[in-house]
Design a protein that fits this description.
The complex is a heterodimer.
Chain A: H1 2-21, E1 25-30, H2 37-53, E2 55-60, H3 68-80, E3 85-88, H4 97-106, E4 110-113, E5 125-130, H5 133-146, H6 150-156, E6 163-169, H7 175-193, E7 198-201, E8 215-221, H8 227-238, E9 243-248, H9 251-260, E10 277-281, H10 285-292, E11 298-302, H11 304-319, E12 327-328, E13 331-334, H12 342-345
Parallel strand pairs in A: 1-2, 1-3, 3-4, 4-5, 5-12, 6-8, 6-9, 7-8, 9-10, 10-11
Antiparallel strand pairs in A: 11-13
Helix pairs in contact in A: 2-11, 5-7, 8-9
Chain B: H1 5-34, H2 41-49, H3 52-66, H4 74-90, H5 96-119, H6 125-144, E1 149-150, H7 160-165, H8 174-191, H9 193-203, H10 205-210, H11 215-241, E2 243-244, H12 252-262, H13 274-293, H14 298-327
Antiparallel strand pairs in B: 1-2
Helix pairs in contact in B: 1-13, 1-14, 2-13, 3-8, 3-9, 3-11, 3-12, 3-13, 4-5, 4-6, 4-11, 5-6, 5-11, 8-9, 9-11, 12-13, 12-14, 13-14
The chains are: A alpha/beta, B mainly alpha.
Chain lengths: 350, 332
């Protein structure tokens, strides 16, 4: 009996040490949220990569994209667990500076994803898996320019009755949203600048004043990310004189604009906003509905699944000591015509 | 000669009931003249449409505030109810009309819980409803797995939801519900025993109890009704905004409470009108729609709405003081 017990004990010890040695690598993923369909696709990508590479993953998303404090707290809590690597999509880079510095000292590799962590302390971010937001939003400006009659309207505009092209954005802090706003504004200013005088108005960050501008690019930033406030901003934009087109820079602002226009139905031809051209960003059921009905001219989609997958893959590789580098996960323009094409359909999640 | 007490009261009442509507008319006229494209049908519709969910919450919380209490949970209960209705529809696969029953029901459950905690466990209303505010925020996120719930949009399957609760062709259907439920709330507050006890509890709870009224039970009723209205507002929130985000809705209760206060209901309890609340809701919505038409960016709207709330209470204080002064001769 004694022998049996000692054998059993030895077995437990051996098995225990083996399982300890084989314990999965622990990787923390701190994202920007879980509510939007976009983030659910990111999470799916993270989970699949975690399964593929055999790592234990913890995924955190704050309740809303305004909850900067909660995200910082979650980041600190994860750092205390001593993860092999960290993947981070920061709501505000400035608010995590101290933590990133600490990660360097603790030797925790950090992988940026989605908006990434721009202007991070040198050496803290090993690589970033993200959409190049400027290029992605510039795509919307290019596609708008290609629309039949768009250039004609811009050419016909005069300083006395200028044409307005508006950008509706949720905030002026997050890198992805500011990057998109900048990308759209710069590209549109460049293309429209060949046709007439362009002024950028509405928000100090982007303002480019011009006398006698016949084309105005208006940047509207909502006071909070709450849908009531975003809807209110959308109403303010819809109210502007000479409004030709609106670009909504994320799913949140798309939902706000949809709420202001009866799910987009008032953008239909013949309705009161029928002449206004709207382009969106990302996907989600209400936006896809607006695209299918041709109420939106089109939207830019990223590849959220790939962003999530690469975030965990890069984290795994960095933690294993491999060299990693930035990956642009790409963006595509989709409309009612190609929304069901296989290569688009997998990107436009509900 | 004695001045009959009720004459002073009536005079006070008529001042109060005229001031808020006058403010609404002046605001509307002001924005119509100085705003850009304010006096349009679509602007009018957007004023109405942004009032629905605030309106329902405000009607309900008017009862609670008149009892001298407060309900801080209505904003998050509204969202929690709407989110759970969305889960019932999208995840549990219930038909939409069945899933929609969950929405007011969840609100009612939270309301009854608040009432029980306040009446039977003697928690201060502020604390009890602060607790349910957090509980409902978390609960909605737990049930939905933190996922945003989308209700059917116009132009998609089950679009009848929008036609029945939001807009049919170009008619704002929601306004019919707003009026009907306003009339119900008005009737309950002014023409029923429940309404009389709500006022009595707010004026002097102890005296009400001593005169043989089961004040505790009526108070539970007030919170239950408030919860039910918060749940109903969830239906109209979903109809207006389509997208319901878990763990949000906090802050909306303050919009509703602000509307009640602007409408002249006293936070001390015992005094208030349902008409005032309706006007308060419309004033808030008019400001919300009007300031952008003056090209004021959004932070200004929050700023000015805050000033209006403070102004409304100051005005109410001044009125009460005047009324109290007028009452002095009645002693002699």
């Amino acid at each position: 009996m004694k022998k049996l017990v000692s054998i059993a004990l030895a077995l437990v010890l051996v098995l225990g040490s083996v399982s300890l040695a084989m314990a999965d690598m622990y990787i923390s993923v701190i994202s920007k949220g879980e509510q939007h369909a976009f983030w659910q696709a990111v999470r799916k990508g993270c989970e699949d990569a975690a399964a593929e590479f055999g790592v234990t993953m913890f995924y955190y998303g704050p309740p809303s994209e305004s909850d900067i404090a909660l995200q910082v707290d979650a980041l600190k809590a994860e750092m205390d667990k001593g993860p092999a690597a960290l993947a981070l999509a920061s709501l505000s880079t400035e608010s995590v500076m101290a933590e990133l510095q600490a990660c360097i000292e603790l030797g925790i590799p950090v992988i940026g994803f989605d908006s990434g962590v721009p202007n991070a302390p040198e050496g803290s971010i090993y690589a970033t898996a993200s959409t190049n937001n400027k290029n992605a939003a510039a795509l919307a400006a290019e596609e708008m320019m290609k629309l039949e009659g768009f250039v004609d309207v811009l050419s016909a505009a005069t300083p006395e009755s200028p044409v307005v092209i508006a950008v509706l954005s949720q905030d002026a802090t997050s890198e992805s949203v500011t990057g998109r706003t900048t990308g759209f504004v710069e590209k549109m200013a460049e293309l429209a600048g060949e046709i007439g005088t362009v002024a950028v108005v509405g928000h100090d960050l982007w303002a480019v004043p011009a006398d006698d501008a016949s084309i105005k690019i208006h940047v509207e930033i909502s006071a909070t990310t709450g849908i009531g406030d975003v809807t209110n901003s959308a109403n303010a934009v819809l109210n502007m004189d000479g409004l030709l087109a609106i670009f909504c820079s994320n799913e949140g602002t798309v939902n706000g604009l949809l709420a202001a226009t009866g799910d987009g139905s008032r953008l239909a031809e013949g309705e009161e906003y029928g002449n206004i051209i709207v382009a969106g960003f990302d996907a989600g059921a209400p936006q896809k509905n607006a695209i299918r009905n041709n109420w939106f001219v089109g939207s830019v989609t990223q590849d959220p699944y790939r962003i999530g997958y690469l975030a965990v893959e890069l984290a795994f590789r960095a933690a294993s000591g491999e060299a990693v580098e930035d990956v642009d996960t790409g963006a595509k323009w989709y409309t009612s015509v190609n929304i069901d094409d296989p290569d688009i359909a997998i990107l436009v999640y509900d | 000669m004695q001045i009959p007490k009720n004459k002073v009261a009536r005079k006070h009442f008529s001042m109060q009931s005229l001031l808020a509507p006058a403010a609404l008319v002046i605001l509307y006229a002001f924005f119509s003249i100085f705003g850009n494209r304010f006096l349009t049908m679509s602007k009018f519709m957007s004023i109405l449409e942004s009032s629905y969910y605030i309106g329902f919450m405000a009607f309900g919380v008017t009862f609670v505030i008149i009892t001298g209490g407060i309900d801080l949970s209505i904003g998050t209960v509204m969202m929690c109810s709407a989110v759970i209705g969305g889960v019932a529809f999208r995840t549990w696969g219930l038909p939409l009309h069945v899933a929609l029953i969950f929405v007011p029901l969840i609100g009612l459950i939270f309301g009854v819980t608040n009432g029980l905690m306040i009446s039977k466990l003697h928690l201060p209303p502020f604390i009890a409803t602060l607790g349910t505010m957090m509980v409902s925020r978390g609960f909605g996120a737990i049930v939905s797995n933190s996922r945003t719930q989308n209700y059917p949009a116009i132009g998609s399957a089950d679009e009848w939801f929008k036609h029945v609760f939001f807009r049919y062709q170009n008619f704002p259907i929601g306004v019919i519900y707003l009026v009907v439920f306003f009339l119900i709330a008005w009737f309950v507050l002014n023409k029923t025993r429940f309404g009389r006890y709500v006022f009595a509890i707010g004026s002097n709870e102890e005296a009400t109890r001593l005169s043989g009224v089961k004040a505790d039970n009526w108070k539970i009723g007030a919170y239950a009704l408030c919860g039910l209205f918060a749940g109903l507002s969830g239906v109209f929130y979903a109809a207006t905004y389509t997208t319901c985000t878990p763990a949000s809705g906090n802050g909306e209760e303050l919009n509703a409470i602000a509307a009640v206060v602007i409408g002249g209901t006293s936070m001390a309890g015992g005094a208030g009108t349902m008409v005032g609340t309706l006007i308060g809701v419309l004033i808030m919505a008019t400001i919300k729609a009007g300031l952008p038409s003056m090209n004021l960016q959004q932070p200004w709207q929050l700023f000015i709405t805050g000033l209006v709330v403070i102004g409304a209470v100051l005005l109410d204080n001044a009125r009460n003081k005047a009324a109290a002064k007028a009452r002095i001769p009645t002693k002699g």
